């Protein structure tokens, strides 16, 4: 595309100032949105805004046609999946690089296809750990209708901030906090006033990758949010089939017995529970002292 554009502009004997401005704008846009990797985009980051008139994807300089062709080839059958969950696949997640810098957006479906994950597609997520005043952690068992990790036990709430201004806001991590408040209401029926934005403690981030099955999986940079509140949980059955509060000692036994009892534990929760969570839990009364916003733990 670059060669054709260049020849079109420079091939005119009387090149006008207008064309010079267009060419300069093209190179500036290319520099802004490209990386040194210029192969056709193997994963489905969204295109730069149509108003730019240049069919570059935000990550890899792809033409719009090329990106659409990759998207068509990457489609997985959704006919057998829960209809409510299928609708949620259209949500736009935030695509990030290895340093958690926003580089675009992609549908929830695109972000969770293993074939895209294996090519590097990475999105932003969060995990809420909600404790009651006794210091017990609220766990949820994911609904069997969920597309990824159905029926698995996990921490209180795990989801994604979406690619719109309110949840893209990075100042004081407001976007992630808003997303957490939204999903606690959606999944567990917890009213926003019971979990005020300022009461979420953002501790750190982890990056992990896991397959749910042959088609679907996760590859996320996951913001860890702690909050200690008494709440009224009213689980949405299509999202959550069971909840329970658990103490540190009970969790240790729960994890140890999961394999013999056939209890399924989500990979992100198991990773966190076996590494970072025990120390965090011991310092629940002073959890802000554990904040580490500069580190992304690769797990």
TrEMBL record:
A Pfam family assignment: NUDIX
Gene of this entry: LOC110976532
Catalytic activity: isopentenyl diphosphate = dimethylallyl diphosphate
Enzyme class: isomerase
PROSITE patterns xrefs: NUDIX (PS51462)
Pathway connected to this protein: Isoprenoid biosynthesis; dimethylallyl diphosphate biosynthesis; dimethylallyl diphosphate from isopentenyl diphosphate: step 1/1
UniProt keyword Cell wall biogenesis/degradation, yes or no: no
Cofactor(s) needed for function: Mg(2+)
Top-level taxon: Eukaryota
GO MF term list: isopentenyl-diphosphate delta-isomerase activity; metal ion binding
Family: Belongs to the IPP isomerase type 1 family.
InterPro entries (alphabetical): IsopentenylPP_isomerase_typ1, NUDIX_hydrolase-like_dom_sf, NUDIX_hydrolase_dom
UniProt KW keywords: Cholesterol biosynthesis, Cholesterol metabolism, Isomerase, Isoprene biosynthesis, Lipid biosynthesis, Lipid metabolism, Magnesium, Metal-binding, Steroid biosynthesis, Steroid metabolism, Sterol biosynthesis, Sterol metabolism
Cellular component annotations (GO), alphabetically ordered: cytoplasm
One annotated GO biological process: dimethylallyl diphosphate biosynthetic process
NCBIfam families cross-referenced by the UniProt entry: IPP_isom_1
Domain Nudix hydrolase span(s) in chain numbering: 121-271
Keyword Zinc: no
Name this protein carries in UniProt: isopentenyl-diphosphate Delta-isomerase
SUPFAM superfamilies: Nudix (SSF55811)
């Amino acid at each position: 595309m670059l060669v054709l554009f260049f020849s079109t502009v420079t091939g005119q004997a009387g090149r006008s100032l207008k064309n010079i401005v267009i060419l300069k704008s093209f190179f500036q846009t290319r520099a802004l949105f490209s990386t040194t990797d210029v192969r056709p985009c193997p994963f489905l980051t969204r295109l730069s805004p149509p108003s730019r008139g240049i069919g570059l994807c935000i990550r890899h300089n792809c033409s719009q046609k090329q990106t659409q062709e990759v998207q068509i080839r990457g489609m997985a059958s959704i006919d057998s999946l829960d209809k409510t969950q299928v609708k949620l696949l259209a949500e736009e997640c935030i695509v990030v690089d290895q340093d958690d810098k926003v580089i675009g957006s992609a549908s929830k479906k695109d972000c969770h296809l293993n074939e895209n994950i294996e090519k590097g597609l990475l999105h932003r997520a969060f995990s809420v750990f909600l404790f009651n005043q006794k210091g017990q952690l609220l766990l949820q068992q994911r609904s069997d209708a969920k597309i990824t990790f159905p029926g698995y036990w996990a921490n209180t709430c795990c989801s994604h901030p979406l690619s719109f201004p309110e949840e893209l806001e990075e100042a004081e991590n407001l976007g992630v906090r808003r997303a957490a408040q939204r999903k606690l209401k959606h999944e567990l029926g917890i009213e926003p006033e019971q979990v005020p934005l300022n009461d979420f403690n953002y501790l750190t981030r982890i990056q992990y990758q896991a397959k749910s099955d042959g088609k679907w999986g996760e590859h996320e940079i996951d913001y860890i949010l702690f909050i200690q509140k008494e709440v009224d949980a009213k689980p949405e059955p299509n999202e959550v089939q069971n909840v329970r509060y658990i103490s540190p000692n009970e969790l240790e036994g729960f994890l140890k017995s999961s394999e013999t009892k056939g209890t399924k534990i989500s990979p992100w929760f198991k990773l966190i529970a076996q590494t970072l969570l025990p120390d965090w839990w011991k310092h629940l009364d002073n959890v802000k002292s554990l904040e580490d916003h500069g580190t992304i733990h690769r797990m």
